[in-house]
Amino acid sequence: MRRHFILALTVITVVAAAVAAPAAAAGSFAQPQTQMQTHPQTQEQAQTQTQPQTAIQTQNDTPTCDYPIEVTDATGETITIDEAPDSVVALQASDAQTMFEINAADRLDGLPYSPATSELDRGDRANIGSGWNLDHEQIIATEPDLVLAGNTTQEEDIETLREEAGLTVYHFAEAESIDDVRQNVFRTGELVGECEGAQDTVDWMDDQLEIVDTALEDADRPLAYYAMPDGWTAGSNTFVHDVLTTAGLENVAEEAGIEGYRDINSETVVDEDPEWIIYPDDANDEPPIPDALQATTAAEQDNVVAVNANQLNQPAPHVVSAVVSIVEEIHPEAYAEASAELESSPAANDSGTDGDGGDDADGGDSIPGFGVPAAIGAALVTLTALGARTRRR
Fold it and tell me: What SS3 state is found at 348?
């Protein structure tokens, strides 16, 4: 909170200077630490079809970092942690992204080296494999106090690390919604002793979604097709589906009765005639859109949106950035108006809480999809991102 107060004073100073002597000043942050995934689906998507997990995680309202803690993971294993771990290994890209976002990267000693983590600051951290294939010897040699295992980690890998190496492994359940991602963030914070960082991260997520909700209040909900390579798509009971619906879209796959990640017949898509086609931008050089879909309204009107795969395909905090980018593309005016409305509301003047930010802006470059900053409003919008993200970089 003290840091948020200092940030607020800093931004107020910038605004005062702008009023006295107008000048073009637009701060920007580095792009979020994002992670590419593998073809034809993300690793964290592909394996969930054949490896369903039981959701056993406690639904946290707020994280609690009181040790010792005892939790039950997705395998039904009860895990006791006596004190905050000094060394953590993340087996999947989403685990690593979350560690960075909650300000716990200083405890992250191993992670997968793959396109999925190429934009993270891997430094000299141990390379524990690709995520698909784990290097058990390297993981064991790292001597971690805790191993975080995203839901796609194979059960045999977890058994080896637990039974043969005696390591403490927490296996996450499959995330089927943005709310599940929130809970994963909270649980990670509790496991690694970074509850403040986890709460700040979730607050940042909710701040962005509040703007989205306001933008969509009077907006139509067009039908959209989520295109993946080889004719695959994301149906109901997936967090990609939740991203689409949260972004104000109706999902063709849900209309066709598809659950999970699987292929969809092009004729079905044409019959549904989506107004928009959404696809992850790691899908080779061209959008993964079959020729048959050129007959859809989306293709005819060039309503095709590439979304950062690193944000969209990971059950981690920056999934909300994917939501923002979709809404800003499909409802740009409504999004800009919602940003200005919420940032000028009385609640927006309270730092460190939902709605903190500025008071009249199109936004800044601090959060993906916020557009070009404008005068005073841009400086205040920057506070929204600073309050939640400066501590994580």
Answer: helix
Q: Identity (one letter) of the amino acid at 178?
A: I
Q: Give residue 68's identity as a one-letter amino acid code.
A: P
Q: Over the chain, what is the mean pLDDT?
A: 78
Q: Are 34 and 308 in contact (CB under 8 A)?
A: yes
Cβ neighbourhood burial of 257 (10 Å; 0-12, 13-18, 19+): exposed
The structure tokens listed for 138 are 């390297």
Query: For tokens 């994917």, what's the residue?
Result: 322
Q: Which residues contact 171 (CB under 8 A, 6 or more apart)?
A: 53, 73, 74, 75, 77, 149, 151, 153, 158
Local structure of residue 162 (DSSP, 8 states): I
> Residue 173: enclosing H or E segment and its boundaries?
none
- Work out the burial of residue 137: count CB atoms within 10 Å of its CB; fewer than 13 is exposed, 13-18 middle, 19 or more buried: exposed
Tokens standing for 4? 């948020």
DSSP result, 263-285:
E--HHHHHHH--SEEEEETTSSS
**What is the DSSP-derived secondary structure letter of residue 57?**
-
Residue 174 tokens read as: 């499959």
Quick: pLDDT tens for 78-119.
Answer: 999 999 999 999 999 999 999 999 999 999 999 999 888 888
DSSP 220-271: ---EEEE--GGGEEE-BSSHHHHHHHHTT-EEHHHHTT-BSEEE--HHHHHH
Amino acid at 251: N
**Residues 6+ away with beta carbon under 8 Å from 300:** 294
- Tell me the one-letter amino acid at 74: A
Q: 25 by DSSP, 3-state: which?
A: coil
Q: List for the chain the helix, strand, coil content (%; round to 5).
A: 45, 10, 45
CA gap 225, 211 in Å, rounded: 24
What is the Cα–Cα distance from 184 to 175, expressed in whole angstroms? 8
148 HSE (CA, 13 A, CB side)? 29
Rounded Cα distance, 35 and 313, in Å:
8
> Average of pLDDT values for 147-165?
95
